[in-house]
Amino acid sequence: MKMTELLRYDIPPEIIALWQKQESESLLPLQEMAVKRHNLFGGGNLIIQAPTSSGKTFIGEMAAIQTALRRKKVLYLVPLKALAEEKYEDFRAKYSEYGIDVIISTRDHRHFDEALESGRFSIAVAVYEKLSQMIVRRPERLEEVELVVADELEILSDPERGAQAELLLTRLLQSKRRLIGLSAVIGHADKLAKWMGADLVHHDRRPVELRYGVLHNGVFKYRTYNEYAETQEDFVNAHSESAWEELTTNLCEFVKRDETCLVFVKARHESRRGAELLAGRVALPPAKHALEALRRLEATHSRDSLLNTLASGVAFHNADLSREERLIVEAGFRSGEIKAVVATSTLAIGLNLPAHNVFMASDKWRYDSRFGMPWKTPVLRSEYENMGGRAGRYGSGAPFGRSILIAMTPFDQATLWRRYIEGERERVEPQLARDPLENHVLRLVASRACFTEEELQTFLENTLTGVWIWAETYTIDEIEFRIRSAVNRAVDAGMLAKDASGRLSATPFGQAVAAKGITIATALELAHWVRESETRVWSELDLILAAAMTPDGRMVQISLTSREYERADYPGVLKRLTLDEDLSADVPMNRLRNCSLTPFFEEVRAIKIALFLMDWIDELPIYEIEDRYHTFFGQIVAAADQLSWLVDTTSAIAGAFGGNREFIDRIARLSERLQNGLREAALPLARLRLHGLTRNAILALEAHNLLEPRTIASAPAQVLAQWMPTTTAHDLRSWALCHNDEDPTPSGWEASPSASQPILVVDDRRPDEVWIEGKPVRLQEKQFRMLRTLAAAPGECVPYETLYDAVWGDAVVESVQMHFQKRQIIQRIKEVAPLRSGLIRTIPKRGFLLELAPQEVALLPATVGNAA
Hints:
Blueprint: H1 13-22, H2 29-36, E1 45-49, H3 56-69, E2 73-78, H4 81-95, E3 102-105, H5 113-118, E4 123-127, H6 128-137, E5 145-150, H7 162-174, E6 178-183, H8 189-196, E7 198-202, E8 209-216, E9 219-224, E10 230-234, H9 243-256, E11 261-264, H10 268-279, H11 288-295, H12 301-310, E12 314-317, H13 323-335, E13 340-343, E14 357-360, E15 363-368, E16 373-378, H14 381-388, E17 400-406, H15 410-421, H16 437-446, H17 453-461, H18 464-473, H19 476-492, E18 496-498, E19 504-506, H20 508-516, H21 520-533, H22 540-548, H23 562-567, H24 570-577, H25 588-594, H26 601-617, H27 622-629, H28 633-656, H29 661-676, H30 683-686, H31 695-703, H32 709-714, H33 717-720, H34 726-738, E20 760-763, E21 769-772, E22 775-778, H35 781-791, E23 797-799, H36 800-808, H37 816-832, E24 840-843, E25 847-850, E26 857-860
Parallel strand pairs: 1-6, 1-7, 2-4, 2-5, 3-4, 5-6, 8-17, 11-13, 11-14, 12-13, 14-17, 20-26
Antiparallel strand pairs: 8-9, 9-10, 15-16, 18-19, 20-21, 21-22, 23-25, 24-25
Helix pairs in contact: 6-20, 10-12, 11-12, 11-13, 16-19, 16-20, 17-19, 20-28, 21-28, 22-26, 26-27, 28-29, 35-36, 35-37
């Protein structure tokens, strides 16, 4: 079927021309089948089940665009933030000029939340969880949606996220929204289609042939995907007992023939080390464009490693990389200048990275919160297909691809062949039965989908779990008992209320919890912290640690080695940092401080996370945080994202309890700081969401006193362009000019504002307070001595050694105490002068600098009268 035939389905010629350029002149067989036989542009639910590279994703795209062109709204659901970002950027680049308004909704793209909830979009690309939360807040918005495209339906089997996705899909089905589901590896798709009331569009041929099999002793025995023929191909025999040596030897041969290779390993450190080993073996030209792009990024340990491996045309890809680093690797691999990438399995899920050859491990690490530890387990057949399916992608130019497992013994060869070549895909395993049911009961009541236990039972019996598991396992009475027990637990937790007639409603507390998507167990712990903290003095570290200690805050992906657990003494650092804080409140920080026993492993991990996030929001350089806490930028950002969400939820809980506005706002600002890794003074620039205005760029602006519109407007664009792309610099300056109340003076952009009265007054006769902008600030003795030392040299970097001698003298304390005391000073100053949160700046590896001119500081010795 020619692409031009889509004119009859009201697709504009301009869109068809775009599709011809970016896809093909003709539809692939699967796409033609969906259009002609299954009424893609008409109505009815569909499940598209076909191998990778067969064109199923474009089916969802065609349906979404045709629906948007009819001025109907579309939701495009994906399981991962990275997939959402890729799809959003793709749709926005292709369709914005046609008036199709595309937005994205993920946890760290909150700036579009209002547009999503108010219906101001044509296509909303969202992760499953964010849509679930939106439905709690604005369930009526579902009525405005015409089509939902659900990508990667295998999320239904995910132990952590499957239950929520299942509940969401059930809600969409019951609301009669049109649903198109996509999957390459789902087993028993016909049964899933029956549950969805959908036509199954099944196609089992690939546009590019795939040879999938097992390599043993230099012979690759394989089966062809399309023809189902079994044969073999001679590879290089490394005559080694090491699977890695077999892989490396043959990969070197492939890249000599200009064939790209993906290598999937089970752990992040294996991907990094694997890339380093390959870089030392292959003789490839450097990936020049990727290297050039990386050098413009902030220094991180991952960036340094990539600079080394990319010099040999090799890279690694894992969750330790920043988003910018991952995008550079992906772009370099797509362009062909990177010939080999060693990656963890997350790269296999959905991202469009075609390769000629894919090598993969047959096992993986799995973590189950019930057991609290990871263990090694074979990869699923579906996971194997997802990884192997990266090879031989349509449009790559290769006549075929190879998916290669390596066996070191005849036994391994036989078992791998039987499990992965001859085996069947696993059936979807619904996860709702394994989840605490009260969490889902709360969300259903809060979103006004159900108002009674009877309605809850009807809804839940129609979930995939209800149809496939409960109907076969439980009696009606048993189902009623499970639902009644879940309701009672939610009522006891203060989340739900039940009137005399049995009608259910969410309390303000329950509504806030459901709208944020956290579990009841986590909510109760955060609520306890709120009750303990509203009327006391608390620090950012206090709340961050409390959030990290909740069930939803536990992050096993943040590395903590046994050596760290035993020797790093993070609990000791915590105790020393909080010596001056109140011990009476019943909060996690005090429980850990007051306990003489060594904390459990997961508690130490939470302490580590809280400590490095304090440095993150205190604007320490990434490299320094990585060194101090044996972590990587990607892990820092992941932890910041997770805990920013929980701290934001804490703010909502405080609001539900009727907390005072100052308390609520302070928590909300901390959430925003965690998301951006900045002090409060720099948040206005982060809120602009300008592409290219990174944390590193904002820190550079802050270092040059360029945070306010007046100073930015006065700066030449070429000065701003030192730290960001030229277009971003122009956009930032345009914003500043629009928000500048004064005429900019180009020559004066570096000057500090003059002040007729001192901003800071330090009186040696009052060592318990200073004055900021005419207001007293209470300080402890150590804090006063530190600020007094800085005030003696305003605008100059005071070395750490000088500060140490002034504050502690001959006493021996941890170096982190200095940063903690600095944070305490800033916190007390912010309470009376919020705009002065950047008063003290850290000069990495040197000292602190008081951000005031000499004329803005009054230092009164003990012989002078009190300035107040």
